[in-house]
Amino acid sequence: MPENPILERVLFSEQQLADRVAELGRQISADYRGKLPLFVGILRGCILFYSDLMKNISVDCNMDFMCLSSYSGTSSTGQVRTMLDLRESIKGRHVIIVEDIVDTGLTLNYLLGNLQNRGAASIEICCLLDKPCNRKVDVHPKYVGFTVENEFVIGYGLDYNELYRNLPYIGVFRK
Ligand code: IMP
């Protein structure tokens, strides 16, 4: 396991991530056969997870992205802004939101309301990490990679002030 002074410890190794993401991909593929799902990746944290997940999706699908901003440092500001919107209409589509981590749930709560107003046929959430102990609003992701404690984690897309997204594993940040 790599030694890294910015980490208290590694939580999920590259292999653990790869195995779990493959399982999620198989499960989603089975659930969405014949439905032409639209995978909406939430930039920028989703990027590594999204890419690996899509390689494990075996049904026809479409890809799109949104960029939302709600964080500064290690705590949620609670204010969500849309920095980049979807390219196409989602009316009648089966949407799967692909997110790095659900923490307070404020970001996804905002996004679910926003996408529901656009007439999607269904909307589910696929997140790599779920931090349910920190929830401020009721949000229930259907597909969850791992549940984590109330710790600030980085790597595999997750950042601290825009750093460390490129780490191929996930670890607890040493503040
Ligand atoms: P929420 O609105 O509090 O659920 O936060 C969602 C966003 O906060 C995620 O998409 C992440 O970008 C960021 N976030 C929440 N917890 C962490 C963490 O432990 N590490 C890095 N980013 C986090």
TrEMBL record:
Residues that span the membrane, as ranges: none
GO biological process: GMP salvage; guanine salvage; hypoxanthine metabolic process; IMP salvage; purine ribonucleoside salvage
Pfam families: Pribosyltran
Cofactor(s) the protein needs: Mg(2+)
Domain Phosphoribosyltransferase: 14-160
InterPro entries: HGPRT, Hxn_phspho_trans, PRTase-like, PRTase_dom
Alphabetical UniProt keywords: Cytoplasm, Glycosyltransferase, Magnesium, Metal-binding, Nucleotide-binding, Purine salvage, Transferase
EC number: 2.4.2.8
Superkingdom to which the source organism belongs: Bacteria
Molecular functions (GO terms): guanine phosphoribosyltransferase activity; hypoxanthine phosphoribosyltransferase activity; magnesium ion binding; nucleotide binding
Reaction(s) this enzyme catalyzes, per UniProt: IMP + diphosphate = hypoxanthine + 5-phospho-alpha-D-ribose 1-diphosphate; GMP + diphosphate = guanine + 5-phospho-alpha-D-ribose 1-diphosphate
Cellular component terms per the entry's GO annotation: cytosol
NCBIfam families linked: HGPRTase (TIGR01203)
Protein name per the record: Hypoxanthine phosphoribosyltransferase
Organism lineage string: Bacteria, Pseudomonadati, Elusimicrobiota, Elusimicrobia, Elusimicrobiales
